[in-house]
Specification:
210 residues; alpha/beta; Rossmann fold; 6-stranded mixed beta sheet; 4-stranded antiparallel beta sheet; 7 helices; 10 strands; 36% helix; globular
Amino acid sequence: MMFTIKNLHFKDILEIETMDIPKNKITCIVGESGAGKSTLLKMLNIMLSPDKGEIYYKGKNLLKEDPIKHRRLVVMLPQQPTIFDGTIRKNINIGLEFAGNDVQDDSKLLNALELVHLAKSLDEDAETLSGGEKQRLALARAYIMNPEVFLLDEPTAALDDDTEDKVMESFINKIKENNQTAVLITHSQKLAAKYGENTITLNKNGGGSK
């Protein structure tokens, strides 16, 4: 297993007796608003700690891991991704620098943009992008960091259905090709049914089910 959760409790938001997230699979997390989906992702990225309980990453106690090192292996894309001042090129390279990877030549950066169907110049100012374009830029940045795990919180929520399907299909196919793992929060039952190899439903009053 990539992640294992045991007897987790966090405020009045999450109550999980057991949960397994398999390695090299696409796990979709669904559930109504307020069920703790985003909170769970933050815990998997050591941005929040449970009040009690244990979270294991590849068999190791996650709460004893170095957060910075962990976030280089487990990259989280929040609902509102951070876009930095400057060009698209700069924004992608910031991700590479954080991951401790060498800066790539422009052809590889453009390949990452192509993967998420973002036809833009690397010299374009990232702040001029629309909300959906910023989401795709952040997705390209996460991809090129080459992590073990992607934690994706509604990564295509700002896209229309057609673009969402194209972006997710190419991105998920590449993850599978690379034997990587993804945990995807989505409000879309269609996306969960199409791409989820493992689906977990979180309930508002605590707990989860497959």
